[in-house]
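INTERNAL AUDIT FORM
Audit reference: QA-55
Scope: verify that the stored structure record matches its stored sequence.
Auditor: D.O.
Record contents follow.
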Amino acid sequence: MNQSTRATVVKSTGSWYLLRTENGEELQARIRGKFRLNGMNLTNPVAVGDRVHFHIENQVENTGLITEILPRENYVVRQSPRKKHQLHLLATNVDQAILVITIRQPKLKQGVIDRFLLMTEPHDIPSIIIFSKADIYREKDLDTFAALYEIYTDIGYEVLLVSAQENQGLDRLETILQQKTTLICGQSGVGKSTLVNALYPELDLSTMDISDFSGKGQHTTTFAQMYDVGADSHIIDTPGFKSLSFNNLEPMDVAHNFRELFLASKHCRFNDCLHREEPHCAVREKLESGDISELRYANYLSIIEDIEAQNYWERHQDM
């Protein structure tokens, strides 16, 4: 292995990271010291997509030591599901993000769409919403999709209905992925790995059926990993999640990153309006006129309530 000092993190397995050097060679590496993200406490200070400097630590085992994380263009972060006072980096330096969801098997929790968008919107990361398993949708499921399609396309997001079994929507999805680094996320069991395998069978990602007992998805992807899928095209596959919470945001951050609420808020009487009971609130006026989705607004209130349920000390401990 040439002792190149620059590489990209292509897999994160906890304490070790798989690096790919500029000449395409790979090695395992660990980190030295502590790295923080804008002063925030992280469960994983290095993430897939990071560009790093390293040096060879063990010539015999060909392992390295990460000494520096190069400046990030962007990052996607969430509250750690296990340590509520810490954050978990999903990926860095991405061109776009895809949320894979389904209306059936497992049953859709619509609030997850807006919680996912709250991870990407603050960093201006384009996001695409993919509804999978279209081949098993019933008529009422298609009605649900049509309603959600209208809500999210009206505010500027691309929404796609796909089926890996029937090859529906896959051509468009493949086009979306070309010459981009794409973060792919989804709740457990939504068919994320099945979709990737349908497009790129050579990757042979592990898949698992929905649990017959619980009707819920089971985790298949264990660690985040980047795959090359064409010229200058990469996907970052991530473990399925069950829920998304935010200890790194204040209520006003949420208000600013619901794009249609933020646009309407310019006409609110108060600059710090949270669009609840404040007088002369332009957001609630548009809500009453039907120009803002009641569903999006309800999800907005739910997220704010979750954040406020954590007191300030809890949200900022060790950050």
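Auditor finding: record pair retrieved intact. Residues 8 and 51 are 4 Å apart (CA to CA).
Action required: none
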